[in-house]
Amino acid sequence: MSARASDTSLMEFNPLRRLGFVPKAIVITLLVVWLLVQLYPVVFLFITSFKSDPQVLNAPFALPDPLRLDNYTRVWEGDRTNQSYLIYFRNSVVTTVGSLALLLVTSALAGYALARGKFPGSAAAQQIFLLSLAVPVHVLLIPMYFFLGELGLRNNLFGMILVYATMGLPFTIILMRSYFLSFPHELEEAALIDGCSRFGAFVRIVLPVSRGALASMAIINISWVWSELFFALAMLGRLEVRTLPIAIASYKPTSMATDSVVGDQFAIMSLTILPLILFYFVFQKQIRRGMTTGAIK
Amino acid sequence: MASSQQSLETAAPRPFARPQPSVRARAKRWLQKNAMWYLFLAPALLMLFAFMAIPLFKSLELSFYQWNGLRPREYVGLENFTDLVEDRFFWGALQHTIVFAVFATLGTVGIGLLLAVAISRRVLGSGIFRIAFYLPVMLPMTVTAALWVRIYETNYGLLNTLLREIGLGAFAQQWIATPQTALGSIIAVAVWQYSGFPMVVLLAAIENIPNDLHEAATLDGVSEFQRLRFITVPLIRPVLISISVIQVIFSLKVFDLVWVMTKGGPGESSSVLGTYLYRKAFELQDYGYASAVAVTMFLIIFTVTYTYYRLMKIEAVEY
């Protein structure tokens, strides 16, 4: 060990890079094995979505032969038992976009007030958001079910948007506040001196400069909203308002006569994760950074 | 700005006597100074009030009633909670939740740490590993669960087929269809899906360790393993602890995985608090009792989470 270290020139010394051949081979082998374990099921998911059920059952590892798009066309068009995938997809998009929009607007406003405002009650407000961060949302399910029913917002995507935006608020507000704390005062003060109101300065100066921060808030929140099942399952009973996670969790085979029960479900699942995977590949650095920030802080 | 201008104007007619502002004027100024901030906070506070605070208290209230959602509810005092204490299925669900939290956390953080250390050594293709290992974290749990139902399927499932093909057919079993293996199989899926999360967090921490430390240690003849044990792990220990607590809190809330894979079965062998609450409320319409389960769940998770936030001093975060 010491012999190996001493014959390295100090200039290019990087101990993190230095591994003997055997340990390096072991590390790489283990990483590759885990890579297979992690990726194969996802690949299997896509492959299976192109297969008929006999193929799925008899040759689970084989590539689809022949490659069939039937599952996708069936899922796309829908049938008696299952709505067209398009409706679930639309519901999920509406819910996700709506929740994120409401969440970003409300938490940017609140985060800004907490970071800038020295007003009576600002510490209390901060404390309220911190406390609500620790509330497990499961406890809210039953009262919310009846409350949304009274408001006429059960089986309603707007009701879901309100619920999701609220669930995301505490966390997003805390992050927005820390962002605005590090935001330079000078920019807004110039605007304020020029006669801009606080709100005007916020909308015209602060928000445009904070696009990046708002985008990372959206990135942090998008995948849980897209995937949420616990509340959606209880609140969205009617077929035409269901979101994708409900469609997957309560997928019902049309009849035993069709040859593709598994295939259809896997086609819906593939279409559900495709946007997320594309999104991940585009934003993977920001996503992982956002998650690290969110987790540790 | 506006307020000071106004007060100058009102003071103009009496240049020498400084006017004492009336209570109304003072209130007006106070409001002008602060009202904007309350308006900024209002939407968020209103939403939290309507959709979090009120439901929270309603949930507590409902746990003292017996109610099927249709007939008028009936006040039963603490009966729901005394029933809970004698309900062995509730204790089972609580026990499964804790087992799930402990093993899912050990699994994800343990594997995450190994992966982070391995990748930090910048072996071949570390960029690809970094991207690939986080990918399953992005998937909806519902999709993961439905996918693994197919993998665990007894007769034609991927796992048993694989075991038979490599000559380990003796190990093939009804993974999620027998009480002995159901919970363990679900935990394995959680570990499969979420190891990437601690990995990313720990990797960031490991890469923050100054290289000088490793350099000095290596020059002093410290081995790989010793560096891991005496440099890396101690230095990332705060992060290791917080990621573990985060995983525990997250796992205590598990619902989707269990619901889609087994609905808590077979029997009640894999039920957790989330699924037990759901079954009681929406399958058995026993809303009062389900609320008692919810309140218990709230007390456990809120205590753990809030203690953690206090210890971490989360209000001092830096973005």
Describe the protein in words.
- The complex is a heterodimer of chains A (297) and B (319).
- With 297 residues, chain A is mainly α.
- Chain A contains 14 helices and no strands.
- Chain A folds into 2 domains: 2-76, no CATH class; 83-250, MetI-like (MetI-like fold, Orthogonal Bundle).
- In chain A, 72% of the residues lie in helices and 0% in strands.
- Chain A has helices at residues 2-6, 21-48, 53-58, 70-77, 85-116, 122-133, 141-151, 157-181, 185-193, 198-209, 211-227, 230-235, 244-249, 261-296.
- With 319 residues, chain B is an all-alpha fold.
- Chain B has helices at residues 2-11, 23-62, 79-86, 88-120, 126-138, 141-152, 158-165, 179-194, 196-207, 211-219, 224-235, 237-252, 256-261, 273-283, 287-312; strands at residues 65-66, 74-75.
- A two-stranded antiparallel sheet of chain B has the order 1-2.
- In chain B, helix 4 (88-120) runs antiparallel to helix 12 (237-252).
- The longest helix of chain B is centred in the N-terminal third of the chain and has 40 residues, at 23-62.
- At the A-B interface, helix 1, helix 2, helix 3, helix 5 and helix 6 of A face helix 2, helix 4, helix 5, helix 6 and helix 7 of B.
